[in-house]
Amino acid sequence: MTIAIETRGLTRVHGDTRALDDVSVRIRENTITGLLGRNGAGKTTFMSLVTAQDAPTSGEIEVFGERPFENARALEQMCFLRDNQRYPDDYKLIHALRAARIFFPNWDQGLADELVELFRIPKKPIIKKFSRGQFSALGIVLGLASRCPVTFFDEPYLGLDATARTHFYDVLLRDYAEHPRTIVLSTHLIDEMDRLLEHVVILDRGRVVQDSTADELRGMAHQVSGKAQAVADYVAGRRVLSRHSIGGLATVVVEGRVTAEDRGAAAASDLELGSVTLQELVAAYGFDGADTPTHRPEPLAAAEHSARADTGLTETVAAVASDEPTSTSPRKGA
Ligand SMILES: Nc1ncnc2c1ncn2[C@@H]1O[C@H](COP(=O)(O)OP(=O)(O)OP(=O)(O)O)[C@@H](O)[C@H]1O
């Protein structure tokens, strides 16, 4: 088993915010990993640090056994498509594709052309004029056609219509099956992307709260619903992950698999036991402990941080003059 990404005690502090706090994970080569967690959990920070677009406050990172910071060999293996990827003002689709073709050693122009058609990405307007969905689609094209050994997608679906999202999931799975590689993606559309994920890392307030295969995770907790007192009796002594109540009824997510004994206890108290989806688990692990109404408002999304470093593809994009002829070279400087 080869480890593609390993972090040890990875920490990033901004003022009094611990964006990442002592994160130690090992992500196996040739897996699709979902980086999940509520707004501000640290997902983008993790991806920025691993791709050396930001420097940790402390801790270590290895990508295929090498430290990525200022390491061209390690950086060349990675592609990070941010949800707010930046391109030069005058760039059109062709310029972004040209830059990607130069930058990424495994770039597949045929796949890029196919995806441009599939997602109906316009060729004439500058990228700045793209709709949110067209902008995301461009990121998906660059991320998939780059065929990087390690590819990060940060909420790649923003603004995509349902058809385009389905295309993305299908093409990702098809291309991954044909060209296995390590893919890490952050998402809030967990139910929709559930089928893509083999491994899941859940972050909450910068810390890892779960790190396991998706299958293991699904079986790690269950839900019990019924009269509040009966539910309270059932969950006594168990680790409660979330609790919701309406009137005299309660629904609680508890850690642990359902045993035969649990089924008996539930039946005797007229309680319903159910499985928990990945989406519910993420919500449960990001739960603050107090009993909450079922329709709990989400906190405001974390602000965008314009001061973030922006390197990698963006640097290359900026370096490619927009009036250069299209390069047929697959490598920068080749
Ligand atoms: N440059 C920065 N300066 C100050 N705070 C920052 C900076 N970058 C990140 N943070 C803070 O670190 C925390 C983690 O942010 P991050 O963007 O990694 O979260 P996220 O899980 O990607 O969130 P979302 O799902 O909302 O995109 C947040 O509290 C955020 O406000």
Query: Pairing-aware structural class of the strands and helices?
Result: alpha/beta
Termini gap: 33 Å
**Rg on CA atoms, Å:** 22 Å
CATH superfamily heading of the largest domain: P-loop containing nucleotide triphosphate hydrolases
CATH topology of the largest domain: Rossmann fold
User: How does CATH name the architecture of the largest domain?
Assistant: 3-Layer(aba) Sandwich
Number of domains: 2
Number of helices: 12
CATH class of the largest domain: Alpha Beta
Bound molecules: adenosine-5'-triphosphate
Order of helices and strands: EEEHEHEHHHEHEHEEHEHEEHEHH
Strand order of the largest sheet: 5-6-7-3-8-9
Task: Characterize the main sheet.
Answer: 6 strands, mixed
In short:
This protein is α/β, with parallel strands linked by helices and 334 residues long. 31% of the residues lie in helices and 26% in strands. It has 12 helices and 13 strands.
Secondary structure elements and pairings:
Layout lengths: L2 E12 L2 E12 L3 E5 L6 H8 L7 E6 L8 H4 L2 E4 L11 H11 L5 H10 L13 H14 L4 E5 L7 H17 L3 E5 L3 H4 L5 E6 L2 E7 H5 L2 E7 H8 L4 E7 L2 E7 L4 H9 L3 E4 L2 H8 L27 H7 L15
Parallel strand pairs: 3-7, 3-8, 5-6, 6-7
Antiparallel strand pairs: 1-2, 1-4, 8-9, 10-12, 10-13, 11-12
Helix pairs in contact: 3-12, 4-5
The site of adenosine-5'-triphosphate has 16 residues, from strand 2 and helix 1.
Keywords: ATP-binding, Nucleotide-binding, Transport
Protein name: ABC transporter ATP-binding protein
InterPro entries: AAA+_ATPase, ABC_transporter-like_ATP-bd, ABC_Transporter_VariousFunc, P-loop_NTPase
